[in-house]
Amino acid sequence: SSGASFLFFVFKELNLRSMAVYNTPQGYLEEEWETAIPTAFLTMPLDEPIATRVAENKLKLQQLNISTQLYKVTPRPFKDPLLCTARLPELPQEFCGRMFQTMEKDFSSLLNSDGFALDNVRSGKWTRFFTTLDAEYESYYASMENKEKEESSLYDTESAGSGRSWLWAIMEQEVKSCQGYHAMTAEFHDEILQFLMSTAGIIATDD
Questions:
Q1: Is the Cα torsion angle 92, 175, 79, 189 positive or negative in sign?
Q2: Where residue 54 falls among pLDDT bands split at 50, 70, 90?
Q3: What average pLDDT does this structure show over 70-89?
Q4: 12, 37, 110, 195: least buried by Cβ within 10 Å?
Q5: Residues 192, 20: contact at Cβ < 8 Å?
Q6: Residue 162: its pLDDT value, please?
Q7: pTM of the entire structure?
Q8: Which residues pair with 39 in a beta bridge?
Q9: How far does Cα 26 stand from its chain's mean position?
Q10: Angle, CA 154 vertex, CA 105 and CA 73 arms, to 5°
Q11: What pLDDT band is residue 127 in, cutting at 50, 70 and 90?
Q12: Is the pLDDT reported for residue 146 higher than 70?
């Protein structure tokens, strides 16, 4: 986003040989296009203004015969059996199961029939769900044995700058990512790393 935009102004000073930018409409300055470096872009098509500008920037690099790739993060189901193990390992599996049970019982309107997240994550519906989830986690946490509490001590209601719990913060980001909008993501990280290494002349080893 705004941090990625900064790279277009300092890539020469940093002696970069390639770079990847996520979710930013910024491109090279007009006088810098001829000296641009291989660039990978990642965008979320539902964020249309940014996605449009990114596609234009990629096309301009192609016209200049400069290596470039565009990776698009599309919506995916929020209700996924692998959600916690693959993306939210902070959450105990037992609690993750409870979370989906609560959603199905009291907040089924948040997802469509295919498990995709509906409504803006800042809507009242999601706010009520996150508030309920926080309360349920507090109850779950209180029921743990001391040893389990030590292992699950990541719970900290002050960890999010807004005063919300860390659980609220990570769930909100996950919903945004599932909706394929403007959010942090690690999707395509292998492909992007491969692009950066190959265009920078870095040879991967098995070590």
A1: negative
A2: very high
A3: 86
A4: 12
A5: yes
A6: 52
A7: 0.70
A8: 19, 68
A9: 19
A10: 65
A11: very high
A12: no
Mean pLDDT of the chain: 85
- Helix (H) / strand (E) element for 19: namely strand 19-22
pLDDT value at residue 205: 63
Closest CA to 133 of 175, 181, 187: 175
The candidate with the shortest Cα–Cα distance to 184, out of 193, 192, 174, is: 174
Helices (H), the chain: 2-10, 48-63, 93-106, 124-142, 146-151, 166-178, 189-199
Largest CA distance in the chain: 63
Q: Is 40 left (phi over 0), alpha (psi -120 to 50) or beta?
A: beta
- Cα→Cα distances 178→105, 126, 202, 207, Å: 21, 14, 33, 34
Location of structure tokens 């400069």: 66
Token output for 104: 């199905």
From the CA atom positions of the chain, what is the Rg in Å?
21
